[in-house]
Amino acid sequence: MEQLKIGIITQVRVTSTRLPAKVLLSVAGRSYLEHHLDRLSRTGLPVIVATTTNFHDDLVVQVCKEDGIPVFRGSEDDVLSRFAGAAREHELDAIVRVTSDCPLIDPEIVAAGVDRWRAENDPDLYISNCLERTYPRGMDFEIFSTARLYDAEAKATLKADREHVTPYLHQNRSGEMRLLNLPWSGGPHSKNAAQYRLTLDTADDWKLLDALIEEYDATRLGCAELVAILDAHPELATLNAHIEQKKLGE
């Protein structure tokens, strides 16, 4: 496969229901959104923020402008069309999809996923590390060609397909996708990794992330190091262990 243009698109909006404006909360002198974008930038790939046309998200645009991150604004509810618009505007051949509630996403894991996607040389390939969960929540990524994204944009009709971007792809509704899950390879802590939450969705998630960043300098750590801290300090993991992840369509 010739050198394709692959970019990371992260979806951001401040009108989240469980913890409004969560990505604009600050820790260690920067917003959680900036920590997230810093981590993604370390992959060496272009990073694009896909936010909404809602005036509340003018704040997101301002943060990105100050950090030199390009922004695409599209539908608040039809996130699939928002991603497709961002991909077209930046002339991407393939996309890494992430969400902005992952402030400690590991750039090395994402970059390794992109290397694998390139090596497979298959435009119908969908790669993720969460088809079967072996990583903590907050490390999730998906990689697929823009051709497949545009096919989903044209054909996906279910509300959940439009809101969550990729169900049409990873449920192989077209019958033409090849799915590949990349499991944890971070060493001896794998048995616990999937149970942890390193995502920012609720106030209790916020408490854990604040503690990790303030007390352990977590913005400098990779996934395996973060899991090792949670293994060694169960009192930290219990801060958000009770949180139920929202289901598709909720």
From TrEMBL:
Coiled coil residues, start to end: none
SUPFAM superfamilies to which the protein is assigned, alphabetical: Nucleotide-diphospho-sugar transferases (SSF53448)
A cellular-component GO term for this protein: cytosol
InterPro entries reported for this sequence: Cytidylyl_trans, Nucleotide-diphossugar_trans
Signal peptide interval: none
Cross-referenced PANTHER family: 3-DEOXY-MANNO-OCTULOSONATE CYTIDYLYLTRANSFERASE, SPORE COAT POLYSACCHARIDE BIOSYNTHESIS PROTEIN SPSF
Name by which UniProt lists this protein: Spore coat polysaccharide biosynthesis protein SpsF
Species this protein is from: Kribbella kalugense
